[in-house]
Prior knowledge:
Porin, Serine Threonine Protein Phosphatase 5, Tetratricopeptide repeat, alpha+beta, 2 domains
Amino acid sequence: MKKIFFVICIFLLSVIFSFSAFSQSSNPLLDEGIKQYQAEDLEEAIETLKKARAADPTSSMAAFVLGMAYKRTNDLPDAEKTLRDAVSLTPKIKEAYVELIDVLYQQNKLDEAKQYLLTAESEKILPAKIAFLKGLILLKENQTVDAVTSFERSKHLDKSFAQAADFQIGMAYMKEGKLSKARESLNLSITQNPVSDLAGYARQYQDVVDSAIKTHRPLHVTLSAFGGYDTNIISKPKDDAYGAGLDNEKGLTLNSSARLDFTPRIEGPWLFNASYTAASFVNSTHTHSHDSLANSISLAPGYNFGRVAVNLNLGYTNFLLRTDEALFVPDDSNAGYKKYLDFYSVGPSVRFLVNESNIIELYAGYDKKDYDHQKEIGKDYLNKRDTEGPRAYLSWIWLFTPNGFFNLRAELNEDNADGIYWSNRGTKFTGNLSIPILLQAISEKVGLLSLQLTGGIYIQDYLYDQLYQEFNGTAWSNQTNKRRDVTYSGSVGLNWAFWKYGSFICQASFTGVDSNIPFNAYQREIYMAGFEFRY
């Protein structure tokens, strides 16, 4: 931003020295303040001009020069206050509109700046400078197309703005991902005046653009392997009375995956990314009932409107499970991998950039789950788990540091199942926090180390009464109730990016389920560590 302010000052400083009234004044204090300002004695000028304003509060010229002096000393709040006077007192100082808009822009008071822009445009005040400032404001609001139009208008009205305008046009194209056009505009900026400071800045950004064009790889590969210990692989109920026959619930686990991401470089507003993931879960104690394989494909074409981006999200996952359809798997079972679940999802998402550090995302879609080889539980037609229904979420991401973020998400879903025992409505709230825990200087030497915390609650209200058995300590009895599960989850972990291509990750997580049907209540802890490699 300092570079932008430097450029603006070069163009706007001429206002002071070309303004004829600077050499004409009936107020000796104002004359003295102007001379001190022109001599760069800013502190003395401020004191003198404050006295000039006290002697003549109606002097718009005194307000204007004092505002400029405050601005030169980077006292933006006082500069704003006095420049507002300069455009409201009589006679109005038209050049003060330019300075006031710039001061408001620097303070991110964009709505107020745009109000003064409208006045300046309607009164045709310094059109080229106003067009340039309008472009800066639009660029900060990520309205890149309109920003480019304003910069083009600025250099068309006044050729002295060509170098700065082309530089900013290059910045706008970089934001849009139009790297070739960005390179062209930056090159134009350089050729306007190759020895200027602005040309030096343009060369630096041009190097970044050239590097991005050369090094962009549309394909990215991620490989991971995590070993761990699971205290309840089979989700054994808390109460031993309901877990009879479900033994050896603890065991070692291995989670491994390979992911391929395809993100082609598309110049312009269109977006596209796709990914394929193959994942495996194996364990040491229930290999013939709970080992699984999953293959997932996702596609997300979209369009970037600047501050808002829209994507259509398409997903498909196929799960294979080593499973035996019997509720209680015999010890001599040697089940192979069988098709277990096809999971489809489709829906649009809208991502809104509130500002440089806050992002809001809204999704509304439809899910469908088709199960095979389901375990036989009671009456099959009541327990068929095939479901379909809507799902939506609202997510907020706060990028509070360059390498840290905080995320909150609220989600709603409805599963309409073929077997009424599985029809339910769910409400989920989750939070994620990632915090760098090493100083920047240390991270640059040993790699980024982040603390990662997650937590959530998922409430599922099932829609129909279902029959179950309850144990009162001495005997079993049949009961009927609408099932309600409340799932609590949380984790704490460390992520050490020890290499630009690799990270070491360790994590401890907890899951607890409370249910009014005791067979569904359980607790589970997982401790894991492993490596992730990216290229």
